[in-house]
Design a protein that fits this description.
CATH topology of the largest domain: Glycosyltransferase
Radius of gyration: 26 Å
CATH class of the largest domain: Mainly Alpha
Strand order of the largest sheet: 1-2-10-11-12-13-19-17-16-15
Number of helices: 17
Shape: globular
Distance between the termini: 54 Å
Largest sheet: 10 strands, antiparallel
């Protein structure tokens, strides 16, 4: 039974979920573990070749449960303030609790703390037992035993099969405090505690150093407090709260917690970060949760050029005004992170840079130029999707990746990343791929992209997917734009292909067919054409936007992936229909599994667990739907809208051009506070608000401005602070 805590950041129940898959995952960007599960995962550690590549299962030495001689009441609680899960048992004689956390600052450490507290005045010894099925073995790693180290057991080994033929197999060392079978509270003590550590690293030296660090933190009494401070720092810079709709507020908090858990600590972003997979670090073993691969979930953002009312959209205008919120990692998870934490956003983009060689190999293997990012990728960047058709045809992934890079540039103006950080190499490589992938139709006098699978995966081997062509066009236009900013000459074919690439549009019905030959009313799997308006930002009339929503809403599989309804909600918000939007947004609640707000891919609980993809789409609906935030080349636009049940929306930590801001949206007014300090936001530029009415409001550090709720934009001022 779920118990609603007064604190919306604490999820509590007196029993675990009936399906153990919905126990909460604990992660910190390197380690991921589902509570009580006998295996955990380590970022970047995969076993298996090609389509069999999956996260290697690592035995978890802390997978233990407390057992007591007498019956007691149980409480299971996830505190998202601190990232600590606690299982407590209360009897007449003793209160026993075990708390788990993946250390937020020292990411190589997994911790279990057990506390026994005497109840009443009796003085007999109290004993509890720790039940564990742990064995230091794995089907994915050939572990060997090393000498004990400072009281800890030590194993090490390598994965069995490299990702690519002739490649290396990741190494892993683990040192842990051996579990005791029982714990006793002596007669002369009212309370006592025990701490158990697991330290994981790729090397012997690294594991010992991390274990040493954990022991020192324990000696200093700072193991738990330092972890909590890490979470406190994260929440200070990224907070979204909804007043008036408690269920929605809890859902938002849960989504942010699990998404932040998948990322490294702010102060220790590693040089190599292995991306975010749909089920996070806690999932992804063999035959589960997309095997822990990264793909379009990471990104999604821009768009392409279309014909609306039979007149072509201005190519340059669209690229400048394109909304850039990116799909799985790149499209669905990335945008919210980028809006709050540019440092973490860059770490996600770095994953694409790290895998450039694999992307070049993919393009060459398919017979094209440039780079072709994998539909599912692990460490090398080569395609590891178990089914070939997705890697061969779902090529919109390339455009989704570029949308993420575009979003980052527009939010930060960090050109150095593109000049020296190889970001430009990614953009140029994708542009070259598209120009080699198109074919010219002399009959239609336009370029076509044939034989693809759109986001709607019910259809494949189709020509001119409107979404695929849209992101391809945007990729090319952004490549031209970036070349100009870097004072380079872009190949003329980039612009030529972009300007002549076909985008299916029905001028009579005033809507976008999903692809050439699509019959209106045919069922689709998930959000596809509706993504043209958001996140792609394709210019279209309100009539066309509405027609697209009305055409595809009724024929979208009601049991499809969780992120779909969020995009319909955003579309209706764009049209000023807040209550219609709410009906779609509330459909997302069917994917939230009690009591710990773990998402499932499908509403019936099936599919990927801890589905960060769905959470990412949901967060975008709240963060960008209710505020109307759209990131454009020269400004951050806003156009707030709130349904009747929401009295206030608060966003703390919004990052733009090196600044951090707090936004408060109410029924009739909007407040913006520019922070005095803007840690982890990049180089700071002076900002101003320009309202639709023409009023200009300078933003000054430490000051709050309040004005009647209307649309407008935040842009750079032309002088320094």
């Amino acid at each position: 039974m779920t118990s609603e805590s007064v604190d919306p950041y604490i999820f509590t129940s007196d029993s675990p979920p009936s399906d153990p898959r919905f126990l909460p995952p604990l992660a910190n960007g390197l380690l991921g573990w589902r509570i009580f599960q006998d295996v955990m995962h380590v970022g970047g550690v995969y076993n298996g070749q090609g389509g069999d590549c999956h996260r290697a299962n690592v035995p978890c030495p802390l997978a233990a449960t407390v057992r007591m001689q007498e019956e007691g009441g149980h409480t299971y609680s996830l505190n998202t303030h601190t990232g600590v899960f606690t299982h407590a048992v209360h009897t007449a004689s003793v209160s026993a609790s075990q708390s788990f956390y993946a250390h937020r600052v020292h990411s190589n450490l997994l911790v279990m703390e057990v506390l026994l507290a005497r109840q009443g005045t009796h003085e007999e010894p109290v004993t509890v037992w720790l039940d564990s099925s742990f064995t230091p073995q794995s089907d994915d790693i050939a572990f060997r035993t090393a000498p004990d180290y400072r009281g800890g057991r030590h194993i090490y080994g390598q994965t069995l099969v490299p990702e690519v033929p002739g490649g290396s197999c990741p190494s892993l060392h683990m040192i842990w405090t051996p579990l005791l079978t029982s714990l006793t509270l002596p007669p002369d003590q009212s309370r006592s505690s025990w701490t158990f550590l697991a330290a994981v690293s790729e090397s012997d030296e690294g594991a010992k150093s991390c274990f040493d660090q954990g022991l020192q933190l324990m000696a200093d009494g700072d193991l738990g407090p330092s972890h909590c401070r890490g979470w406190e720092e994260l929440w200070l810079g990224c907070q979204v709260e909804v007043s008036g709709a408690e269920r929605l507020n809890r859902a938002v908090i849960g989504c942010l917690f699990y998404l932040l858990s998948a990322l490294p600590f702010l102060g220790q972003v590693p040089s190599q970060f292995w991306g975010v997979s749909p089920g996070g670090l806690s999932n992804g073993g063999r035959k589960e949760d997309y095997l822990g691969h990264a793909f379009w979930d990471q990104v999604r953002h821009t768009g392409s050029v279309s014909v609306i009312n039979e007149s072509p959209v201005s190519f340059g205008l669209w690229c400048m005004c394109v909304c850039v919120f990116v799909c799985f990692q790149d499209t669905w998870m990335y945008p919210t992170i980028a809006l709050f934490y540019p440092t973490l956003a860059r770490a996600i983009l770095q994953y694409r840079v790290q895998t450039l060689e694999g992307a070049k190999y993919n393009a060459m293997r398919q017979g094209y130029k440039g780079v072709k990012f994998s539909w599912e990728s692990a460490m090398s960047g080569r395609e590891v999707c178990p089914e070939d058709i997705y890697g061969q045809q779902e090529i919109h992934i390339n455009g989704d990746v570029i949308q993420a890079f575009q979003l980052y540039l527009y939010l930060t103006q960090d050109l150095e990343f593109f000049k020296k950080g190889r970001g430009g190499e990614v953009v140029w490589g994708v542009a070259d791929f598209w120009t080699s992938r198109v074919t010219w139709s002399s009959e239609e006098q336009s370029y076509h992209i044939k034989g693809v699978m759109p986001p709607d995966e019910y259809h494949y081997d189709v020509d001119n997917s409107v979404y695929t062509n849209a992101v391809a066009m945007n990729s090319l236009l952004f490549a031209v734009e970036l070349a100009e900013q870097m004072h380079l000459s872009a190949p003329p074919e980039w612009k030529e292909v972009a300007e002549k690439l076909k985008l299916p549009f029905d001028p009579q019905l005033q809507y976008h067919p999903e692809f050439d030959g699509y019959k209106k009313g045919t069922q689709v799997k998930q959000a596809d054409v509706v993504l043209l308006g958001y996140p792609l930002g394709l210019p279209m009339s309100a009539e066309v936007r509405r027609n697209d929503l009305e055409a595809y809403g009724p024929v979208t599989n009601p049991n499809g992936p969780a992120m779909t309804w969020s995009m319909f909600a955003v579309g209706w918000m764009e049209l000023g229909k807040a209550e219609e939007a709410q009906t779609f947004l509330k459909r997302c609640f069917e994917n939230i599994q009690a009591p710990f707000h773990v998402w499932s891919e499908s509403s019936d609980g099936s599919g990927c667990v801890n589905f960060l993809t769905g959470m990412g789409g949901f967060l975008q609906a709240v963060v960008c739907g209710f505020t109307g935030f759209r990131v454009k080349r020269m400004c951050l636009t806003f156009d707030p809208i709130l349904p009747d049940e929401i009295s206030e929306l608060s966003l703390k930590g919004v990052s733009y051009l090196g600044n951090k801001m707090t936004w408060q949206v109410k029924e009739k007014e909007l407040s913006v506070t520019l922070w005095e300090q803007a840690k982890d936001a990049g180089k700071r530029c002076p900002l101003k608000v320009v309202l639709r009415s023409g009023r200009v409001i300078p933003l000054c550090p430490g000051q709050t401005v309040t004005f009647p709720r209307e649309s407008g934009e935040v842009r750079q001022r032309d002088f320094e602070f």
